[in-house]
Write a structure and sequence with these properties.
heterodimer, A: 206 residues, B: 570 residues, FAD/NAD(P)-binding domain, seven-stranded antiparallel beta sheet, 23 strands
């Protein structure tokens, strides 16, 4: 798979730029030494539960079965800026705070329905946040229009957007996601430039 | 020299030496060994055996730690190579890292390199369009650079020769400015590509969308099976090396063929420091290498030498080959060595949508795409800039997804493959004009790990490039508009020269030794037993992807060299 395809797919899925895409494409610029410096086993388990709420078991296994939590930890370690790493790690606590506020329990103690309800709220929150962030960036760019060395300000991103993006990227490029949820053929052996389009077919992984 | 005994000299003496094992060096090796010459092939990097040394070739996406993205340990120290589209977690081991071989950028230049047996032939985009006389006559007609010493008729049989062996998929399109060749079946265009081609045919003169000719075995012939290669399986993972030999590379094709002759000695880990010139004999007698493992300096001798180190490094070898006869670099009586370097301008794109043909899609993966041959300034000068551009052109449909919310509704939406309308995209491939000021030279102070001076690269765009870029955007916008494409989005970037990976020139061919380095047979004017047949030899760049032309020039020059040896002329 071409990495631009992968990024492009998630960008399309999420309807905008992928956090860290500039790093995924040009390469990761910063890291800390170990996954363990940022995430312990509990964190990974926690991320797996969150991911499994975002992409649960349906007719195909969910994100936990694909161990997307561990993938997220690796990607945050290797492909996020220190600022984004901080947002992500603090976001795990914020997610729990939101759970306590809404249901007076930690995320892991919520029922499946409560987990979904909470993440629906957080998804709305990240969407509004991201829209507002985009407007601020656009306004700033307009203010500095024509300046050759203009550099956009580094505004914080929303932690739940990060979690959701990495869940989607990790799951649909995992063996389970690619082969059980989507269609994946490693060796097509052919190319046909013109076949009838049948709506309703499963998506291709690559 | 540590050891001067006669036996050792004999063991280090060959009929021919080829410097480099990439796309042109592989061809030199095949032709020279095929003609019975004991040939030493020198490669500065490690050996890469076909299939065996393609460590990622059969990996699934999830078998890569970052699912295809690059780890920081690779990318942070390597901003230059990280800008290359083909540099990924699956292919990084075939690219030179920035810090492995530094160079001096007097002006920004993204030098993309592959130091291993096969060189960049493992990594190329496999596009193989012939030149025509509209290209070879360009400099003379338009008054830049110097006249090419050859014309299409000189190279046409050699295009055919290399195409048959390499395996080129394409259609007989009957376009004079992009001559037909010896083709395996072409890959089909998709519906929107065909639609746009029909639109151009109806509404414009000499504007075509063709299936880009590419070095893939769409249907192998016996000669390809003999090489141990088989049909391209449309995996679209070429940059990993192909276990089927579905595309042409030195590793899959010319190098094992040369090996089979029994006449090739392949020596990896051999950086060529310089070519040895014998004043008394008035010719080159060999090369001086440095073994990159032992750092030992060793001399090898031969009657003829082919320099195929890849354009910029060939300039480095020649510039560093100084002697009393050639104090300013090998064969450099004219003073033009290292100068008139040019490249291809890839700095403009355009995209759009098409609201039609929604009942059609594609299946499988195509190893190529659509190609619009140059239509500007072909039959006559018609713009305020010289020369022109070819265009890549492709249509595609995305899988469209709803991404709101979480849970089973989100997942169900994402696993559905409902397709977007058609999108189309094109990128510019512009000719640049070779100029004296665009040059490479030896750095006065800095040296690499082997004691070879670092190269200073000073290459830039000019006003002609800017005008051409503007014209590309204007013409494509107009063509897209008249075809009914909507939401047309042109974009330009400021990518540095080099990222096109089509750097050429510096040791150009020409009729006059006073203004060129090489003659019509790619022989150094002033030293006829040295041949340069990689990108360094290019007098002008035109706008076709150049590798096929290097292959043809190499096969032609190698066979000429053999004839000249038989006649005792070299």
């Amino acid at each position: 798979m071409n990495r631009r395809d992968a990024i492009g797919r998630v960008a399309l899925i999420m309807g905008g730029a992928v956090i860290g895409a500039e790093f995924f494409i040009s390469g990761c610029k910063s890291n800390t030494a170990n996954v363990a410096d940022l995430f312990d086993a509990d964190h990974t388990a926690f991320l797996n539960e969150v991911a499994d709420t975002i992409l649960p078991t349906t007719s195909s296994p969910g994100a936990k079965a694909a161990n997307v939590g561990a993938f997220m930890a690796v990607m945050v370690r290797d492909c996020y800026t220190p600022a984004d790493q901080k947002t992500f790690v603090e976001g795990m606590s914020k997610l729990d705070d939101a759970a306590k506020k809404k249901f007076s329990s930690k995320f892991l103690d919520l029922t499946p329905q409560q987990r979904t309800d909470l993440l629906v709220d957080l998804d709305k929150e990240q969407k509004d946040f991201t829209t507002q962030r985009g407007k601020t960036l656009d306004a700033d760019a307009a203010k500095h229009k024509g300046e050759a060395n203009y550099k956009a300000p580094e505004l914080p991103k929303h932690y739940f957007r990060m979690i959701k993006e990495l869940t989607l990227l990790g799951y649909f490029t995992s063996e389970i996601g690619a082969t059980k949820a989507l269609r994946y053929i490693a060796v097509p052996g052919r190319y046909d430039g013109c076949i009838p389009y049948k709506k309703g077919d499963k998506a291709w992984a690559t | 020299m540590a050891n001067l005994n006669i036996d050792s000299v004999k063991a280090r003496t060959f009929d021919a030496i080829v410097i480099g094992s990439g796309i042109s060096g592989g061809w030199a090796a095949k032709e020279l060994t095929g003609n019975g010459l004991k040939t030493l092939v020198l490669e500065r990097g490690r050996d890469v055996k076909h299939v065996k040394d393609y460590p990622t070739t059969n990996k699934f996406p999830w078998e890569f730690e970052h699912h295809g993205q690059l780890p920081v340990s690779v990318t942070e120290p390597n901003p230059i190579v990280s800008r290359c589209y083909a540099f990924g977690e699956d292919s990084a081991h075939f690219f030179v890292k920035d810090n492995e071989h530094p160079y001096v950028q007097t002006k920004p230049f993204d030098w993309i390199r592959g130091y291993q047996v096969g060189g960049k032939s493992l990594l190329w985009a496999r596009q193989t369009q012939r030149w025509s006389d509209f290209d070879f006559e360009g400099p003379a007609r338009d008054g830049f650079a110097v006249d090419w010493p050859i014309r299409y008729k000189d190279i046409a049989p050699w295009y055919s020769y290399v195409e048959k062996f390499a395996g080129i998929a394409g259609n007989k399109d009957g376009i004079p400015e992009l001559p037909d060749g010896e083709f395996l079946p072409g890959y089909p265009l998709n519906d929107v590509e065909v639609y746009f081609g029909d639109h151009l045919k109806k509404n414009y003169k000499n504007r075509h969308v063709i299936s880009a000719r590419c070095a893939h075995l769409s249907k192998p012939n016996d000669i390809h099976l003999q090489q141990g290669r088989t049909q391209c399986q449309n995996r679209d993972l070429c940059q990993r090396g192909c276990p089927f030999g579905g595309y042409f590379s030195s590793n899959a094709s010319t190098i094992p063929w040369a090996e089979k002759s029994g006449n090739m000695t392949l020596r990896p880990f051999s950086v060529v420091e310089s070519i040895i010139y014998d004043e008394k004999l008035g010719k080159a007698t060999g090369v001086r290498i440095i073994d990159t493992n032992t750092k030992q300096s060793i001399e090898y001798y031969a009657r003829i030498i082919f320099v195929n180190a890849a354009a910029i490094n060939t300039n480095l070898v020649l510039l560093n080959s100084k002697s009393n006869r050639f104090p300013n670099g090998f064969g450099n009586d004219s003073g033009v060595l290292g100068k008139y370097v040019a490249f291809h301008n890839y700095s403009a794109h355009i995209g759009a949508e098409y609201d039609g043909l929604k009942e059609w899609t594609v299946d499988g993966r195509s190893p190529t795409g659509g190609y619009i041959p140059r239509f500007r300034n072909v039959y006559k000068q018609e713009t305020n800039f010289l020369r022109g551009y070819a265009c890549g052109f492709s249509g595609y449909r995305y899988q469209q997804h709803k991404y709101d919310g979480v849970g089973s509704s989100l997942k169900d939406g994402l696993v559905k493959g409902d397709l977007s309308p058609w999108y189309v995209g094109s990128h510019m491939m512009g000719e640049t004009i070779p100029k004296e000021s665009n040059h490479v030279s030896l750095d006065a102070k800095l040296k690499d790990d082997w004691g070879v001076p670092l190269l200073n690269i000073s290459v830039d765009y000019d006003d002609n490039d800017e005008k051409m870029k503007k014209d590309y955007i204007e013409q494509l916008t107009e063509m897209f508009t008249s075809a009914g494409f909507k939401n047309i989005q042109p974009s330009t970037n400021h990518q540095a020269p080099g990222l096109d990976i089509h750097e050429m020139g510096g040791a150009r061919m020409g009729k006059d030794p006073k203004t060129s380095i090489l003659n019509e047979w790619n022989q150094v004017h002033a030293c006829k037993n040295v041949f340069v047949t990689d990108g360094a030899c290019m007098t002008s760049t035109s706008c076709q992807n150049p590798s096929l032309t290097y292959m043809a020039l190499t096969a032609r020059a190698a066979n000429h060299a053999v004839e000249e040896m038989k006649k005792g002329n070299v």
